[in-house]
């Protein structure tokens, strides 16, 4: 992409931010009709590709698929690889958006609609999942170390992707200073939003609910906010973390799309560990405690009309814990599950040569709903109970009637702290 085009792109982004805001925009529920579903593409993480192929194959009969890439050259590579896997790329729409990375829901556009048939975008600030704050914690506020690893230019570019998506769709951008990710937004389309304290406050240190809530309400068009306390234990904040005992992992620190989702305007699905499973391992025990606390909050909560919710417990898959080795160097760290000692903060780090139990951010809750379809992760390939997965299938069939339920193995994404929902972003149908 030449320098002139990049300059024009920046000018257009700045101009779009100056457009007058319209206050009747709101985020529809995910089960409402979609005009498209977006995905991102990063060629360097080849382990993700089989998941991407399966997701695209499943989506294409139901909805327009749009793919954002960082550069023209990467777009050509993506088209070639997708074509080799029997995907008709002429039916896909590609967009070159500098700064684009794989997890498009988190840094990309959170689409809105209004009663006039217009499209909007909630343009949140982006700080790489609170990366500067994580570096400060990891290096005990050592400024030199923080500056060494934090790349503000790359972060800024990725933070402009939602604005570029707004431009591509001629949507109005509602900008906010609040730093937040799309995987941490859960709405019922009627005025209620679910947030998680663990993620919101890590991204916005020093800010209070009283400061944050008006901005969430303004840019998402909601009037009622429910605050969860913590997400899943196997979704810790950033990489790598010692979760407890010898269990290690990494993730977002509590995205709602890992543990709490609306199935309809008045029904909430909550990740759950049954009583008889909580003593099987430390992770199960932690998740049982966390979700029990969240259940109490949800039972006391009310929707935008003052009504209580129907809460459905969705079992978590059986824990996957892979023995891996901590090393000083890992040559193929993008594909290997072994970990570099320096990826940890000092107080949590294993010694080089230690064997630890790495756990993925695995959850049936990281699903995507679109036109006539629900994409749900499967875990029977990694040893989870088929009987449990059948219970999950019945829950989804009950609460998303008339939609095809398709299970996809997304474990490659789980090892990186994400899943199917994190990899996709729905573009709602404009109101007629």
Please, could you describe this protein's structure?
The protein is of the alpha/beta class. The protein is globular, with a radius of gyration of 21 Å. The chain has 13 helices and 21 strands. The strands form six sheets. It has a five-stranded mixed sheet, with no helix packed on it. The chain has a four-stranded mixed sheet with strand order 3-2-1-21. The longest helix is centred in the last third of the chain and has 19 residues, at 282-300. The protein has helices spanning 3-17, 49-59, 72-84, 104-107, 131-138, 143-149, 152-158, 161-168, 197-203, 209-220, 282-300, 386-399, 411-414, and strands spanning 34-40, 64-69, 93-96, 110-113, 119-125, 172-179, 186-187, 192-196, 224-228, 241-244, 247-249, 260-264, 267-272, 310-315, 322-327, 339-340, 355-358, 368-370, 373-377, 404-408, 424-428. The relative contact order is 0.15. It has a single domain, classed as 5-stranded Propeller (L-arginine/glycine Amidinotransferase, Chain A), CATH 3.75.10.10. Strand 19 (373-377), helix 12 and strand 20 form a beta-alpha-beta unit. The chain starts with a helix and ends with a strand. InterPro entries: Peptidyl-Arg-deiminase_porph. This is Agmatine deiminase family protein. It comes from Chryseolinea lacunae. Keywords: Hydrolase.
């Amino acid at each position: 992409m030449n320098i002139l085009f990049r300059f024009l792109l920046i000018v257009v982004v700045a101009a779009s931010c100056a457009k007058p805001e319209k206050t009747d925009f709101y985020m529809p529920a995910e089960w409402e009709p979609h005009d498209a579903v977006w995905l991102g593409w990063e060629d360097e993480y080849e382990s993700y590709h089989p998941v991407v192929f399966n997701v695209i194959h499943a989506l294409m009969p139901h909805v327009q698929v749009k793919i954002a890439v960082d550069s023209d050259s990467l777009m050509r590579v993506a088209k070639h690889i997708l074509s080799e896997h029997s995907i008709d790329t002429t039916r896909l729409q590609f967009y070159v958006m500098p700064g684009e990375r794989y997890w498009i829901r988190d840094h990309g556009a959170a689409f809105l609609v209004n009663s006039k048939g217009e499209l909007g975008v909630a343009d949140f600030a982006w700080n790489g999942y609170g990366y500067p704050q994580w570096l400060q914690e990891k290096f005990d506020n050592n400024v030199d170390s923080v500056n060494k690893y934090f790349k503000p230019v790359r972060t800024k570019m990725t933070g402009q992707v939602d604005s570029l998506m707004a431009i591509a769709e001629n949507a109005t951008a509602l900008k906010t200073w609040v730093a937040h990710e799309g995987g941490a937004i859960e709405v019922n389309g009627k005025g209620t939003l679910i947030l998680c304290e663990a993620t919101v406050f890590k991204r916005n240190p020093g800010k209070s609910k009283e400061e944050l809530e008006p901005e969430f309400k303004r840019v998402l068009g909601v009037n009622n906010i429910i605050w969860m306390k913590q997400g899943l234990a196997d979704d810790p904040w950033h990489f790598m973390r010692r979760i407890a005992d010898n269990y290690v992992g990494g993730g977002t620190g509590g995205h709602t799309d890992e543990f709490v989702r609306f199935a309809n305007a008045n029904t909430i699905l909550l990740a759950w560990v049954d009583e008889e499973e909580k003593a099987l391992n430390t992770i199960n025990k932690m998740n049982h405690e966390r979700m029990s606390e969240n259940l109490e909050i949800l039972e006391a909560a009310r929707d935008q009309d003052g009504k209580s919710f129907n809460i459905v417990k969705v079992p978590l898959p059986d824990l996957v814990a892979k023995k891996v080795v901590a090393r000083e160097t890992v040559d193929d760290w993008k594909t290997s599950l072994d970990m570099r000692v320096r990826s940890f903060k000092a107080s949590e780090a294993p010694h080089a040569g230690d064997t630890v139990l790495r756990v993925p951010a695995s959850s049936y809750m990281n699903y995507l709903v679109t036109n006539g379809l629900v994409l749900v992760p499967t875990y029977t390939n990694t040893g989870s109970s088929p009987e449990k997965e059948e219970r999950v299938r019945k829950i989804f069939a009950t609460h998303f009637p008339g939609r095809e339920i398709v299970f996809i193995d997304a474990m490659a994404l789980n090892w990186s702290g994400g899943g199917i929902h994190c990899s996709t972003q729905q573009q709602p149908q404009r109101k007629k």
